[in-house]
Amino acid sequence: MTATVLGKLKGSISKLTALDLSAITIAWGFVALRILRSAVGFDDVTYSTPQQQITLEAWRHGRMGLWSTTTFGGTPLLGNPFAAGLYPLHWLAAPFPDLLGTDVEMAVHMLIFGMGMYALGRKLGLARPAPAVMAIAGMWSGAMLVRSTLLVHLPPLAWVPWAAILIHAVITSTYPRRITGALAIVVWLIITGGHPQSILMAATLLAAWATGLVIEHKQWRRIGHLAGAGALALVAAAPALIALRHSIAVAADSTRSEDALRPPLYVMPLRDFPRLLLGESRSGFYWMLGQGERVTYAGAAVVALSIVGIFTVVRTRRWSLIALLLVGGFTATLSLGLRSPTLRFARAFLPGFDQPRVSARWNWVLVMVLIILAGVGIDRLRRGRAPTEGFAIVGVAIGFALVTTLGVQGGGLEDSLLWSAIAGLVVLVALVAHQRSRLVAASLLAVLAVFELAVPINWYIEWRGPVVTSTDELLGPGEQWLAEQPGLTLAITGDGFDPYYLVQGMRPNANSIADVRSIDGYDGGSAISRRWHAGLLQIIPTITDFTFAAQVQYPIEQAAMARLGVHYVMWDPARGPADEALPGWEQQSVDGQFEIYENTLWKGDAIVWYSTQQVATPEDAGNQLRLDHGDLDEIGFVEDESAVLVCASECAAEGFVTTSDYSGQREVDIVASRAAVVAINEQFDDGWVVTVDGKEQQLIAVDGIWSGVAVEAGSHHIELRYEPTWLWPSIWIMVIGGLAIAGVVCWPDRRRTQVTDEPVATDASEP
Questions:
Q1: Are 305 and 477 in contact (CB under 8 A)?
Q2: Are 633 and 697 spatial neighbours (Cβ–Cβ below 8 Å)?
Q3: What is the pLDDT of residues 705-754, one digit of tens each?
Q4: Sign, CA torsion 431/437/441/446
Q5: Buried b vs exposed e over 258-277: b needs ≥16 C-beta within 10 Å?
Q6: Which of 280, 377, 399, 485 is 20 to 30 Å from 410 at the Cα level?
Q7: Strand, helix or coil at 646?
Q8: How far is CA 706 from CA 67, 126, 519, 677, 710, in A?
């Protein structure tokens, strides 16, 4: 009899789980459709896709993507965390055209996230439908919706629920060694997955979660296991971390300036906070587009249910969830921008918090915390009446109504009515004792909650922008012609979000799509190096982190641009006639919507200097060249005393054209009439190895920005290869870390038992 009951119970649970997973899969399909149907975005073609394609191309040829030759006159790629050059799931995109491949990769990560949220709800022992609601609300929330098409942001966040599950298992298991190894793998995926702010947000949430669990279960010794997992993950990520350290060391700035945090769309205004958190689902696509990354809504249903959850976890002293509540409140204050004392404190004292520039992104942590607490709230309402929690929701609603009348920005009439209906239904479920009435109210609440979160996704799906699967469809004749020309190109084109304009106008870094090399670039992080700033100092006295094109002054002089390696300028005729801006430049007969002008003073992208002068710093070289009135035209600037050359006659510099087989390699054949210094237009970096006729020589910085080498008179074959000294040691460290993780995971335990203080997941309706 007992076996029969257990069999029926097992079957019931299995059917309910299948129902949950089916609902989650359908909900994910809705999000996946949104990802595939959305128009090509600015970051797609100016940042994510170009960098990923350089990485994938290197992988296809058995190399690690270390260097990008197409932006900033060349820049480290692996050392730029946005590129995620070690992240293995980039292979998901490899079989598809580039834009479609990134969409597929992001859709898969959204499924990873949704299933992780469901598994986390089950791990917490929450009654159905709480785990499924957590999964769907997580995928459909504004916090994830706004990141669903941002490849550099999504991957680290997608693994957070799985890391939380494994942290819970490490702390509650009797034998946690294998789980510690699994946690190390997931933490490694987070570290190598993409944007530093996403990694920092994930780390902040998980650190609070781990701290609360340790306190809740009094498992102080498990701190060592958690630290061990983190250490193994860091060791396995050694190449990316060491490359990042190198890039930071040569970056123009070591911290984000306060000016970078001030743009209005980067912060969550206090007066707009309630409506942006609740979400104005009826306001339409253009309203959401205009909010930028402030679109991080959780929805009225989640907020109301989370109030029930907050009372529950405080009453029951669930310290793990209380810790999440506290960190959610902390990150909400960070989203307010520089007006927030906590942000100023964090920037001053907490490692890494001085780097993020978009404060509003911190609300992702708050939204995830609210969704988890909403799951707890559903569990509480499944078990009986919750009058205190119901009255608390009424109090919060009244408070919101009052502050709205006092100036806080509220929603429109339709949204306000929807919020009120949802909050009222949650209160009804909390107060009504009759089981059938509660069931009807809960069902209606579920329908309204789905409607509330589904409408914004539908706005995005209904957006009728061009569905483009490959950047090949966006290329025009101008950039295709430039891809076949030597030297660097500077695009003086306008701003906008039309993908055709972005690619054909080579808005940085869209030039990388066509393999056109540029002195310009767009990053906002470690890729903006001191050397690049020194190059800009040759043209302008005051440097910002804006693109080169945004800072360049008119007229654009040929001699100055030739010194910077610029062979062509792409000009948007909408700016007006190019005569005044480009005096002496020669227009080329190339089809397309943009005009292309050649620098007639350009000699080549490898310059042989017979006369050189020493400077103390890269900035000295830039400043002297900017103030030069022609006396220094035939003199190269070097920072190494041994590379100083004195030439009495016939000292005119000569130019040659380089070739390259892949990004991170460049070679040239030159003929020097006497001892000389050869400067190649690849940004100087200590990672370059330079050989002359097959023999390694000392790398020399020329003009503060370019990589050079001293040669004797005669014909020479010069080759640059980006092979930093830390590369192979870091790879061996990574291998050792990977083997250590494998050993931790695979080494058998004598006994495997699981103990936990958490209740087993049950459903009130199950027999």
A1: no
A2: no
A3: 999 999 999 999 999 999 999 999 999 999 999 999 999 998 876 654 44
A4: positive
A5: eebbeeeebbbbeeebbbbb
A6: 377
A7: coil
A8: 15, 60, 11, 11, 13
